[in-house]
Amino acid sequence: MKAVQVLGTRENHRIVLSDTLLRPSPTGHRILIKVHAAGITADGVIWPELYASTHRVPGHDISGTIEAVGPEYDGPLSLGQSVYAMLAADSPQGGQSEYAIAMPNEVAIKPLSISHAQAAALPIPALTAWEAVFNRMKLTQGSKALVTGASGAVGAMFVQIAKKMLNAEVIGLASPSKYSFVQELGAIKVLDYGSLDCRR
């Protein structure tokens, strides 16, 4: 099986493409996913959990199809179904590989309206935005929020969650070329993050 592997230490590592790993087999309730796309996290190669894992394969956000399930799996997902998943940081193997093992609570059905590449880019940004909206800022119905980096991965998810779920009044900061994109996501107004006015 082909997979990305990180060799060395956190301080002195190198990334290689390996073809020597065996395809994992799902046990218990686990699900084997044939990976079509995997997200890349900027600091993923220095996460301590990676260096404690057996194969040192990075990646937590994946999208693909269900290849097999463990003998104890009794959930609603079926073989061949398109799904996306966010693997736990301490998973034995990450998702930047041809196949990856996931727990049932890490997997969701991929929407038909998005590609595997788009689905693989969702989990960590969506979770980060969700935690910001509900756990950090504790927004409620009709709240007002100013979102910096509103056209980025996390910012775009924040705008949509706040608008769709809480009918929040969201003002986004973005470059002028991204104004229409951020407004389509639900922002009532978009300001140029580089202008002096929005920094006052």
Question: Which terms would index this structure?
Answer:
200 residues, Rossmann fold, 5-stranded antiparallel beta sheet, 3-stranded parallel beta sheet, 10 strands, globular
Task: Furnish the topology, listing elements before pairings.
Blueprint: E1 3-8, E2 13-18, E3 31-38, H1 48-52, E4 61-69, E5 82-86, E6 99-102, E7 107-109, H2 116-120, H3 123-136, E8 144-147, H4 153-166, E9 169-174, H5 179-185, E10 189-192
Parallel strand pairs: 8-9, 9-10
Antiparallel strand pairs: 1-2, 3-4, 3-6, 4-5, 5-7
Uncertain runs with pLDDT below 50, 5 residues or more? Answer: none
Number of strands: 10
Radius of gyration: 19 Å
- Class per helix and strand makeup: alpha+beta
CATH class call of the largest domain: Alpha Beta
> CATH superfamily of the largest domain, called what?
Medium-chain alcohol dehydrogenases, catalytic domain
Task: Kindly give the count of domains.
Answer: 2
The CATH topology of the largest domain is given as Quinone Oxidoreductase, Chain A, domain 1
Element string (H = helix, E = strand): EEEHEEEEHHEHEHE
> Major sheet, described briefly?
5 strands, antiparallel
Distance between the termini: 54 Å
CATH architecture classification of the largest domain? Alpha-Beta Complex
